[in-house]
């Protein structure tokens, strides 16, 4: 069994099955790696490490650039695979491939711009020489909701910095990760430098990898709950950790908002991947003066989104990733309704096959509702009417999470002022999308540690060293 670079032979071998969320049918089988096999992948990354770290930055840059071009050229194939194993609508899958490819391009550009610093010590006695060197072998753990982009958002900066890696994709979506590994190999990433470990037992496998003496860092994207477990494990070996965790994004519509623009942004922020994004707008705080107009407009737009298999080009909202996700959304909606919320559209899971839930708008959602406290991860928009900016900001910040917030106001200075008061790593001002490879992506509070994308994303994979010298 090969655990590194994919190949069709691997996909056909014995292992665990991957299901199409739209039909429940099996779309592929991948190896079910044991902890022992994962450690072999780490050993391969260790062996490949010194040569890759010593390669000229320009060489690493050109390999990543080739990977970018290969991924763009294979957009249709990769997007179809993402839809098959994740379920997302074809347009979302193509957008994800473009986004994933941009990390390869961005870090091909950043690979040749790793900064250093030389300065005179304040006392004048010596020089301070600061360098950022590759941290070494890194463990990467990714979620199922963006199977391509969450992988390249880690692999591209790690490789650019001169690190080698073991990637453990989510068990729901391992096929895309294997395809990416093939593509990186074709682009010139040396054997062993990127090992993909597919497993149905993430706990013991990741635990073993994190205890391998050569692993120096963990970069994890997933739920806050699992992130906390892994931070504790990482403490055993004092590993550097970059954590992209869950969100609970508030979407603020102030009294002077352009309501049409807010509606357009709301649908983007809510419905990307059918609501299964860490950046998904989770709670809508709408000023009383525009609440009626906003609510009517959102119901109209959400009701018009067609639910169906992602492979159908007319589909706007694909299935949720599995039945358990549908049950969670059902629980959150039932709780809100029991507390007095009204379902204005949707509010149900259509009969099978597949794990679908209809785009839903809830009004009159009371503050205690679970849907306002938990990440919905589905196409449900709960609306809470607020009186004024102070109430909106207080409600928005009343959460342990702090990944992204959205704010709409026609007065840009006011929107920026409110934006500064929102406890979030990212604030979208009068737009429904923040993700950009050139921007530092990440959260505050329990939404994470560290940043991905931008120049910060590369520095995560380095350690800062300092040499004191006099001449
Ligand atoms: P998850 O935490 O269940 O799983 C994420 C990864 O961790 C998967 O690869 C899984 O196999 C692995 N895992 C699960 N249990 C583990 C354990 N005990 N030990 C080691 N690894 C384990 O999350 P998910 O359901 O795949 O993804 C959804 C979550 O990811 C949401 O909370 C979402 O907000 C978050 N997310 C965050 C970002 C971000 O950038 N902040 C981006 C995408 C998704």
Topology (elements, then pairings):
Layout: H1 8-12, E1 16-19, E2 26-30, H2 35-54, H3 57-73, H4 75-86, H5 90-110, E3 117-120, E4 127-134, E5 137-141, H6 149-161, E6 164-168, H7 174-187, E7 194-196, H8 202-211, E8 215-221, H9 224-235, E9 240-244, E10 249-253, H10 259-271, E11 281-287, H11 288-304, H12 323-338, E12 342-345, E13 360-363, H13 370-373, E14 380-386, H14 389-397, E15 404-408, H15 412-421, E16 426-429, E17 448-449, H16 454-459, E18 462-469
Parallel strand pairs: 5-6, 5-8, 6-7, 8-9, 10-11, 10-15, 11-14, 13-14, 15-16
Antiparallel strand pairs: 1-2, 3-4, 4-18, 9-17, 12-13
Structure overview:
This protein is α/β, with parallel strands linked by helices. It folds into two domains: about 15-245 and about 445-470, Aldehyde Dehydrogenase, Chain A, domain 1 (3-Layer(aba) Sandwich); about 250-435, Aldehyde Dehydrogenase, Chain A, domain 2 (3-Layer(aba) Sandwich), CATH 3.40.309.10. Helix content is about 40%, strand content about 20%. The protein is built from 16 helices and 18 strands. Strands 12-13-14-11-10-15-16 form a seven-stranded mixed sheet, with helices on both faces. Strands 7-6-5-8-9-17 form a six-stranded mixed sheet, sandwiched between helices. A hairpin with a 6-residue loop joins strand 1 and strand 2 (about 25-30). Helix 3 (about 55-75) runs antiparallel to helix 5 (about 90-110) and helix 4 runs antiparallel to helix 7. Nicotinamide-adenine-dinucleotide binds near residues 202 and 223. Nicotinamide-adenine-dinucleotide binds near residues 145, 146 and 150.
């Amino acid at each position: 069994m090969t655990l590194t670079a994919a190949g069709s032979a691997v996909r056909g071998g014995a292992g665990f099955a991957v299901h199409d969320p739209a039909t429940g049918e099996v779309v592929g089988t991948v190896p079910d790696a044991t902890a022992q096999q994962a450690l072999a992948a780490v050993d391969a990354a260790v062996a490949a490490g010194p040569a890759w770290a010593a390669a000229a930055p320009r060489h690493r840059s050109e390999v990543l650039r080739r990977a970018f071009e290969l991924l763009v050229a294979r957009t249709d194939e990769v997007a179809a695979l993402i839809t098959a194993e994740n379920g997302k609508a074809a347009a979302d899958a193509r957008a994800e491939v473009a986004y994933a490819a941009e990390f390869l391009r961005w870090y091909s550009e950043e690979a040749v711009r790793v900064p250093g610093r030389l300065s005179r010590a304040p006392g004048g006695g010596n020089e301070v020489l600061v360098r950022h060197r590759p941290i070494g072998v890194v463990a990467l753990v990714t979620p199922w909701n963006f199977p391509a982009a969450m992988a390249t958002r880690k692999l591209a900066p790690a490789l650019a910095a001169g690190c080698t890696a073991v990637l453990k994709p989510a068990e729901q979506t391992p096929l895309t990760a294997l395809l990416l590994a093939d593509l990186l190999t074709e682009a010139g990433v040396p054997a062993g430098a990127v090992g993909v470990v597919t497993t149905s037992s993430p706990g013991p496998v990741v635990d073993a990898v994190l205890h391998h003496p050569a692993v120096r860092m963990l970069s994890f994207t997933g739920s806050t709950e699992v992130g906390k477990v892994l931070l504790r494990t990482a403490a055993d070996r004092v590993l550097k950790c970059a954590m992209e965790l869950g969100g609970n994004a508030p979407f603020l519509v102030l009294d002077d908002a352009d309501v049409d623009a807010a509606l357009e942004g709301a649908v983007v922020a809510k419905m990307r991947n059918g609501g299964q994004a860490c950046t998904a707008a989770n709670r809508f705080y709408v000023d009383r003066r525009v609440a009626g107009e906003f609510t009517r407009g959102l119901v109209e737009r959400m009701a018009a989104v067609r639910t169906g298999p992602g492979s159908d080009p007319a589909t706007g909202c694909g299935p949720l990733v599995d039945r358990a996700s549908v049950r969670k959304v059902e629980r959150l909606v039932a709780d809100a309704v029991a507390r007095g919320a009204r379902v204005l559209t949707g509010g149900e899971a259509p009969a099978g096959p597949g794990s679908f839930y209809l785009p839903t708008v809830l009004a009159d959602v009371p503050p205690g509702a679970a849907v306002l406290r938990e990440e919905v991860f589905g196409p449900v928009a709960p609306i809470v009417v607020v009186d004024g900016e102070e109430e909106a900001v207080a409600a928005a910040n009343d959460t342990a999470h702090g990944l992204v917030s959205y704010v709409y106001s026609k007065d840009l200075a006011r929107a920026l002022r409110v934006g500064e008061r929102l406890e979030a790593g990212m604030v979208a001002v009068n737009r429904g999308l923040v993700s950009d490879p050139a921007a530092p992506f990440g959260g505050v509070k329990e939404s994470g540690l560290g940043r991905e994308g931008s120049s910060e994303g590369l520095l995560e994979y380095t350690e800062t060293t300092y040499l004191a010298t006099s001449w």
